[in-house]
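[step 3/7] fold_predict: job queued, chain A
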Amino acid sequence: MGIALYQLLAQEYFKDFHVIAGHKGLSREVQGVAVMDAPDALRWTKGKELIMTSGYALSKEPHCLERNFQEGAAQLATGLMIKRQRYLDVIPEHVIELFDRHGVPLISMPFETAFMDVINQVNVAVMNQAFKCFRIRSDNPFQMSSLSFKERKIKKILQAVEAEMDFPAFLYDINEERAYYSSANFRNISEKFSLKDEDYWDPSREHSMHSLCEHMHMTRYRLIDPVNPDGPRISWVLIPIIMNDVTQAYFVVMESKDLLDYCDEYSIRIAFLELQSVYEQIMVAQSIGNIGFENFVLYALNYDEKDQDRLIYQASQHGISMSKKYICIMFAQTKNEAVSARDERKSFARGFSDSAVSKFGRMAFLDENRGIILWDAQEEGKNDLEYFSGMLEEFRLKVKEKCNDMELEFAICRDKINLLTLKDGVKRCQKVMTMGERLFPGGHIWDYEMLGPYAWIDIQEDELEAMLGRYRLLLQDQKNRELLKTLKVYLENNMNYSITAEKMYVHINTIRKRIDKVKELLDVSLDDRILRLKLEMLLQFLNL
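[step 4/7] structure written:
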């Protein structure tokens, strides 16, 4: 990473700097500045350095530069700047000829110019050039592309890294479980050293680690081969991209030819900031999109049929297909009245994004402690309760990690709906939530099919709660449990004493006595058909 010498000298600050020899080398790259005031100082040049001198060494040993060129050291320098009229009134002709012959620029610098000012100007120019190289312009709005905004940006940044530094780069998105590469070079090197994606942040082989920047968690990893310590080695620099204390991706630059120099590290920092900016933009867009989606869901739950055209228009504004099929899942936090799930939206959303549920569904709050997840129903073969339960359990635990006082419950309606029938789907989920808590206490995931006949009958919540509470109180006594079990078998067999006695392996008179006793205990008459149906259904869900 650097700037061409001719680009540097074209800046206003260098207007009084004159190239007096070696014009052919003006395209050489400048990365930094060094000062020479000893005859053999050039022997320590590394390359891509602009050398400054007062001319003192040349005045004392006129042929020192010739020796440096003969040794091959002077050719490594980008150019040489000599201060005018300090120790040399005139640049010797043999020096000018020497620089012309080797194509190394020789530059006359003003007498009054401070070395530190020149160094600062060069450093600023190099930094600005790096920013320019990594500035990813907006895409042409008229250019069609099948790639997403995120994919286009990441690929352009990674390609800029390799083009600028000649080191291949790689980014692994954790949520997408997807790898992005600057070119095929990264994959080729990985295959050569048998490295998998996860080896770059969690090496499975012996390695060394060296922190380059603790603030950025920038670390160099270097593989060690104990069998062949003198054999080829590979190293890379890793920087995690972290948003809201959650690692979103790993950014890796392969040190395939040599270790990075300080200019390369600077370029990596710029590329990292560009990548972090992409993730920040996506996070903001998702946040705004989620709020917009939530508002749309609330509108869809309250619209009238006469407003259907407006609902369709609102859906198009949010990029939502009205014909797309969803599975409706309701979540609720009801255990702790002091906690509001909506007030913890940020932590709640992080728990959601960290779970696999976010890959298939979109979330919207309905009130302070309830919300829905619209699950993409396009996935064939993944509609069983066990599959959903596993995914929702992970989501519940992720939310609990972020909000320790929050306990979630879920109601699932696996019938496929679209947004026009969303209101019916939410009503069903609400019924599952209400009755599931009472019919299956102790659980936290209930499904519409678990309700059985209760899914079809409209029974008042307070009535159901009163009846269940009374029955569970009776179950505490073993004698009462036997009476209720007898009643259950009796109703299942159309109130036939003989069949009931046969199935329970007791005398028919015993059954008669038990039924009389349980009617007295419950204070009910079995002549009422509706009451009999309610009793039969309730007894189905009691643990008898």
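[step 5/7] annotate
The longest strand covers residues 246-255.
The chain has a mean pLDDT of 82.
exit 0
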